[in-house]
Amino acid sequence: MPSTDVLVIGAGPTGLVLALWLDAQGVAVRIVDKSKGPGETSRALAVHARTLELYRQLGLGDAVAQAGHRGAAFNMWVAGKRRARIPFGSFGGAITPYPFVLIYPQDHHERFLVERLAERGIAVERETELVGFEDRGTEVVARLRRPGGGEESCEARFLAGCDGARSTVRHLLGASFEGGTYDQLFYVADVDVANDTLGGEIHIAFEGPEFVLIMPYGQPGKLRVVGTVREARAGAAEPLSFDDVEHRSIHALGLEVERVNWFSTYRVHHRVTERFRHGNAFLLGDAAHVHSPAGGQGMNTGIGDAINLAWKLAAVLKNEAEDSLLDSFEAERPVFARKLVETTDRVFTFATARGSVAEFVRTHVAPGLARFAWGLRPVREAMFRLVSQTMLRYPESPLSVGKAGKVSGGDRLPFVRFDGRDNYGPLSDIRWQVHVYGTATRELQQWCSRRGIPLHEFPWREAFGEAGLARDAAYLLRPDTYVGLAEPGGRAEALESYLAGHGLRPKRV
């Protein structure tokens, strides 16, 4: 019987990233997918700053950023007039090395990740479908249907369901998927236009009860268009085409569509499964949560699931942690997923609400409020952090302990530029590490040396304090770059107590 450490079901971005991060940490992984190849249509487009930050761990952040198109500003239009323009770079540069929304079509993204896996000697096993599995406590035995119809069994310590909203893994587990479906019918189209006057920026336009979101591909004249279908057409029995949807918003922006390369209609769902961990099986990405496309959060959240779980699986498999560490995946990711569904639901409901009052608020009140709010730096930064997922933190996690300065356990480490570099450089090392902004005590230096945990000291400068870091404090960072322990006194015994209390035994490299 073939065996592996982790069997990944599904080769979308979530599954591919999980396989990459597991392999990078020395974990044997097998990834299968029932499709014949990567997707041919560009579903998700947005890659957010936090995803690119995490991609830096494998040297992928800059490569993906260069491959995509940087949407540096967001524009709001009403009745053919621009009512608000919100540039990202003027303030996001103090928050992240990637102060923009990256437009990178999912089909391109998947091929990129498949190629990175191939460079590591791992091939996605295509036309291979999970038909059943048994969790025996110490391992999972999965039945796979191979190309041609034959079946084989595969033994794995853990099984990861990354197989989308219609997840076979979730179905076999009998797991819930509570939520609902929005009333509106949406369309998505990839088009060529004769006169692309949008400047490579992101635009949303409202015309009466309809709206359209337009995003550039980074190639002149090529755009992604997402909008609502008129109620009169939404119930049509025959398949709709681009000619059947409202074009007023598109024409109001001065765009003339020359060719439709792809068109589809869809309903939007909002659902979250009850549990992400079921013994030795896990649910990630769309298999665990789906929500409205507001803010382009879906794919990025799945990738975050994968990186959160990967280091924990690796630690347990290498006997660097107890199996109970995996419960922290359940304590961290579902909480964020549910908050995300609630947030995007409110935004989505506002953007699609019908009726004269809703239309008036959306087209006359909201643009003015947006201009005013974005004139306030704290509001700009808060909104960028929310959309970019740099605000994501785990305050309720059992792994989150202490506070030093304004930084608490579970927080994303503040990003600080200085002397032509930044404090995120050491985070490319997927392992526990300690950061001290100022001077580390001799006791802490000796403890890190004895433990084999890298210590990174940054000579104090005011920029660190402005970012919320405390001078001479010790920040014990998890392998996924979040703060585990924030120790204001920099005491080595506090770090030792943290590791012992959580059953963590990081090994020397």
Describe this structure in words.
It is a single chain. This protein is of the alpha+beta class and 509 residues long. It folds into three domains: 211 residues, FAD/NAD(P)-binding domain, CATH 3.50.50.60; 155 residues, D-Amino Acid Oxidase, Chain A, domain 2 (2-Layer Sandwich), CATH 3.30.9.10; 101 residues, Glutaredoxin, CATH 3.40.30. 31% of the residues lie in helices and 28% in strands. It has 15 helices and 26 strands. Strands 6-5-12-13-14-11-15-18 form an eight-stranded mixed β-sheet. Strands 1, 2, 8, 9, 10, 16 and 17 form a seven-stranded mixed β-sheet that branches. β5 and β6 form a beta hairpin. α2 packs across α3. The longest helix is centred in the C-terminal third of the chain and has 26 residues. It is globular. The chain starts with a strand and ends in an 8-residue tail after the last helix. The mean pLDDT is 89.
